[in-house]
Amino acid sequence: MSSTPPTDAVTAALLIIGDEILSGRTQDANLSYLADWLGTRGIRLREVRVVPDDQTRIVEAVNALRGAYDYIFTTGGIGPTHDDITADAIAVAFGVEIEHNKDALAVLEDHYQKGEINDARRRMARMPVGAVLIDNPVSRAPGFQIGNVFVLAGIPRVNRAMLDSLSDRLVGGPPMLTRSVGAEVAEGAIAQRLGEIQQTYPGVSIGSYPYYQAESYGVTLVLRAVDSAEIDAAFAEVLDMIKQAGVQPTLDPSNLV
Amino acid sequence: MSSTPPTDAVTAALLIIGDEILSGRTQDANLSYLADWLGTRGIRLREVRVVPDDQTRIVEAVNALRGAYDYIFTTGGIGPTHDDITADAIAVAFGVEIEHNKDALAVLEDHYQKGEINDARRRMARMPVGAVLIDNPVSRAPGFQIGNVFVLAGIPRVNRAMLDSLSDRLVGGPPMLTRSVGAEVAEGAIAQRLGEIQQTYPGVSIGSYPYYQAESYGVTLVLRAVDSAEIDAAFAEVLDMIKQAGVQPTLDPSNLV
């Protein structure tokens, strides 16, 4: 009954590169932003991997993901220091040479004062042959695209600016619609009926997310679908289910994603 | 020169299961906590994957990870609703039957009032044959361990309580030592010398993390190693490098991870 079979969906994966994420030092701030940003463009984030600054591991992940999804985004490892090895790893993954990209060099030479540019900074222009720049209006050193892989900075402000720069290159599918409702009811008390509603509407993905707070507990139900008639019908049944459980549904726009 | 070759390190991977993470609705809060928690026990988180509520994808990820790392942790998908499919997927990954675990049923029957227990709640006792419970002092429904895979709740408060419950089952390696320092200097100005220091101390992992703030920019340098003499020697050279760049090192304990 799904009006858009999964094979028609435009999909994406995110590869987060960096020891600092795996050590716990840095909390990733790009995943949820990218997921939301893609969602509004009709592209579904379907997998995320986090790997260390290790060429073999990056190559392996890039090649596993770029064959499985329409678009791949990487974050991290494109600065001037020894631990910035993303560009080299991407070149290896694609089986192409790495070079000092002329357009990237021109951007860097324009940005830095005479004498400021050095070998380390020129390193930020190293890109696989065939790479197309992604503009970085924040700190200038560009990201790049090769094939279906977009190589972005990990710093959130730069990451987001680069997404805006590349937005025109993406072709999305139909946007995902969502409906969300909260209820102060135990998840286990509605689980059976909710499963029945899910069975009735296979084109709607129904998620159930319990929460425990100091003074209360309850559940947030999130419906996602492409077809507006189908999501509205399923949502009406969910609201009815909550009322039959003896509580009032909480329609909180802040829950809408 | 590394006193602990990578093959001796005790390693772990995290598999985050849930459409709500991939849609951007929920920001993961377990990764950095787990990374830090494992680090203090001498266990290195080396990979993270996020997959949707899809049995094939969970099975594939569990089997890829459990052969590659010493310990695997999963979060999410162990509640009473139709989208909680982690236990079934883990059973498939291990090629064993799934059953209502007697110990888990006893926990749930003890917790709920008579009449409150229903099929959906009994579902939370469904576990692969051979599973060993992980106590959940917060909301009672237990997690479980099978082989080297620890199956935990996604709700952060429950997740952390379960980690405390299973802590005794883990055997870590030597703890990772860290040193951290900030400097108001452009990353590109120190990159070359930093790379030389990294070459001199292959047993020390040196990470360089730039930041941009409204009034300033700079870099945080993080050193990680098992050998205390080696990390201290490398750190002394890093501090000297910063001073030679004409700025004062900022020793901020809040940066220590």
- β-strand percent of chain A reads 25-35%
The total count of strands of chain A amounts to 11
Most residues in contact: chain pair: A-B, 71 and 70 residues
CATH architectural category of the largest domain in chain A: 3-Layer(aba) Sandwich
Distance between the termini of chain A: 23 Å
Q: Topology as H/E string of chain A?
A: EHHEHEHEHHEEEEHEHEEH
Overall shape of chain A: it is elongated
Q: How do the strands line up in the largest sheet of chain A?
A: 2-1-3-8-7-6
What does the average pLDDT of chain A come to? 92
Low-confidence stretches of chain A: 1-6, 253-257
Number of spatially distinct domains of chain A: 2
Output the radius of gyration of chain A: 22 Å
What is the CATH topology assignment of the largest domain in chain A?
Molybdenum Cofactor Biosythetic Enzyme, Chain A
Looking at this structure, what is the CATH superfamily of the largest domain in chain A? Answer: MoaB/Mog-like domain
Q: What do you see in this structure?
A:
2 copies of one chain form a homodimer. The first copy, chain A, has 2 domains: 6-169, Molybdenum Cofactor Biosythetic Enzyme, Chain A (3-Layer(aba) Sandwich); 177-255, Ribosomal protein S10 (Alpha-Beta Plaits). The first copy, chain A, is 35% helix and 26% strand. The first copy, chain A, has 9 helices and 11 strands. Chain A has helices at 19-22, 31-39, 55-66, 86-94, 102-111, 119-122, 156-166, 187-200, 228-244, and strands at residues 10-17, 43-51, 71-75, 98-100, 126-128, 132-136, 140-146, 149-152, 177-183, 205-212, 217-225. Chain A is elongated, with a radius of gyration of 22 Å. Strand 2 of chain A pairs antiparallel with strand 2 of chain B, so a sheet runs across the interface.
